[in-house]
Amino acid sequence: MNNYFKGWYFKAQNPRQTVALIPAMHIDEEGQKSSSIQIIAEHGVWNICFPYEQFSCRRNKLQVKIGENVFFDQGLTLNIKTDEITACGNLKFGPLSPIGYDIMGPFRYVPFMECRHSVFSMTNTVSGLLSINGQAYRFDNDAGYIEGDRGRSFPEAYAWTQCNFFDESPCSIMMSVANIPLGAKVAHIGHGKIAISQGRFKLTATLIKKKDNPLYAPVHGGMKRLIRESISCTTHYSFEEDGKTLFDFKTDRASFEYEFEK
Length: 262
Hints:
By secondary structure, this protein is mainly β. The protein has one domain (4-258). Helix content is 0%, strand content 68%. The protein has strands spanning 4-13, 18-27, 33-41, 44-50, 55-57, 63-66, 69-72, 75-81, 86-93, 115-132, 135-151, 158-166, 170-178, 185-190, 193-198, 201-209, 212-219, 222-241, 244-258. It has an eleven-stranded antiparallel sheet with strand order 4-3-2-1-11-10-9-8-7-6-5, with no helix packed on it. Strands 12, 13, 14, 15, 16, 17, 18 and 19 form an eight-stranded antiparallel sheet that branches. The model has no long low-confidence stretch (mean pLDDT 89).
């Protein structure tokens, strides 16, 4: 099977630090196979390539292995050493919080979609220690988030944001908008602001101050596109029902990708 990719996004966040790990496999238009792990931290971003033969995953279970690195529903183990990065450690996840339906909604029935998105856990606890080039990332019942993508390419134009926050219990927001013609109505998109409405509900996210880093994203299966993600940036969120504000807050711990106009 040519022209295909499959990737997972594991995010861990404490009140001061954020790190995300993206294991993936890719097959480009020429049939060249490879795998990779991208690491996004507030002090840098790295793309580590592996032979495709070192990649494996379970078909119907969240379990991925690349070299000596393992990612699954109960935690992850990281063991990487190259000229550019030394990263190691273990994280343990608490029970995952999957959503009660397919995040693609009716699009799951549409054939030939460029990309299919999955959310494995809107929020879960994270405990453990990662060391990335000597920088320690410690988590003690802190916040996690897990999602995944598969298909041929990321949409040409899209925006995505996710944020963990705590009130009386851990909560999470995720919003994703792409240039496909059906689904929730896009009330506004432009200049770092996204607003979507569905029925009586409206969710708005506004990127206030970005701190972005370059990441590789798939085009026809190959990791040929450079996108930019702010792993921890300042964002304003609001959510309304019938014009009544249910929550409204600003945080400097949000993640944001904005691939519409620059």
